[in-house]
Amino acid sequence: MPTRQTVLIVAILTPVLLYMLISRFTTSSPSAVPQVPSHGAKRPVFRQRLVAVGDLHGDIDNAQKVLRMAHLIDSNSRWIGNTDILVQTGDIVDRGAHANEIYRLMQKLRSQAAGEGGKVVSILGNHEVMNAIGDWRYVTKDDIKAFGGTKQRQADLSSDGWLGQEWLANYSVTALVPLAPHPSAPTLSFTHGSLRPSYPHLTPYPSAINALGHSLLSKALTPPLAPPYPPNPYSGLPKGSTHDEAESYAEGGPLWWRGLAEREEGQVCLWAEELKGKIGARRIIGGHTPNFEKIVARCNASVIIIDTGISSAYGGVLSALEVVYTLTPLDETKHDDGHRQDPFVLSDTASASFNGLKGRYLEREEIHAIYEKRRKWIALEEREVTL
């Protein structure tokens, strides 16, 4: 017969032991990755990794730190991302002193990544276009000095200069990036600011927006460039700019609008669903509106804002967004030669390679925020697809 003391001890220890047992197999941490069935521990036959980085504002040191954090470059700033995709959402220039070095870095990485089957996608921010039209209010003296003076800076920015040519050839106002080459693969939308559902030139997406952005930029960068303001009077948009081009640079356009970052959640979620239907993207990702502590995911990560004030001019946190997409067979998929298919990754020949993939697959998209000393889980989405 147990003593009263024994009963008391058991009564105290039982809930404690039960709590420890539950805690052993569950977690309440919001950053934990959900436990997902292994589906027979089959290996993915396709994997694509995408990393997106927000506003850099002239800070070459922090830009390099972020790219190293994301395992895209080594200590010598050479591309080690293999077939990864890097998306940078604009505002490389202004506030800091080394924008020219960051643009040179992106130019080099674009070539190196392409040689490995990877890709660098570059988005124009409002500050790139500000510089193009002569609005130099946020240009630092050290930045001008780094370019070699005002005249040389204008020469580099012009359509005859290395940076102007780089902008015109490789930068766009928005991008729609597929995570795989099969027709039903999810796509991610990238802009600097927010996409507004009622923006009149939203579709066809992204070609309509990019055509306007490119034509406006071409006019702005055609010599002679507008004299920089200050100290000169502000010239406004270049002569000959159309109403549609002006609208693309206006407060409600994709370079400046902040609605998806600043409005209340219910409204943003309604806008997100409308945008996804119109542009065919699974997620809308942008920068422009900084949160100095974290990457912000809204509406079940349908909207993600990645500006965390990376530049020391702001003093925010260093961050990058990581998206990993995989396809894992649910059937016993085989090559025509009878051997199991080895994993492959996105490249110029990936579309042709996909012809060899037939059957049912588990499509998995996992999203993390990468910080200096931690990774934070943001979202996981899975579905069955038939190829």
The total count of helices amounts to 12
From the 3D coordinates, which CATH architecture would you assign? 4-Layer Sandwich
Based on CA inertia axes, which overall geometry fits? globular
Model regions low in confidence, pLDDT < 50 over at least 5 residues: 15-32, 35-39, 333-349
Overall pLDDT score: 89
Percent range for helical residues? 25-40%
CATH topology: Purple Acid Phosphatase, chain A, domain 2
Say what oligomer this is. Answer: single chain
Q: What is the total tally of β strands?
A: 13
| Structural class designation | alpha/beta
Q: Give a quick account of the main beta sheet: strands, pairing sense, barrel closure.
A: 8 strands, mixed
Strand content: 15-25%
CATH class annotation: Alpha Beta
Alpha-carbon distance between the termini?
67 Å
The number of domains is 1
CATH superfamily: Metallo-dependent phosphatases
